[in-house]
Known about the structure:
Helix content: 40-55%
Order of helices and strands: HHH
Number of domains: 1
Strand content: under 5%
Shape: globular
Amino acid sequence: MPATSKAQQKAAGAALAAKRGEQPKSKLKGASKEMEKSMSEGQLEDFASTKRRGLPNRKD
């Protein structure tokens, strides 16, 4: 499932880094914190790997 906005893609990338241990979980805020708790590594990978070109900045 691809991300629907640049903000969602960026949050998924931050959550994925925390889940893999590349970034401390304490640095997560908002959506990325919730994504890290509720999504699997595979799901986060799908969201984070979405190409940003053509995506809106924020989902309306």
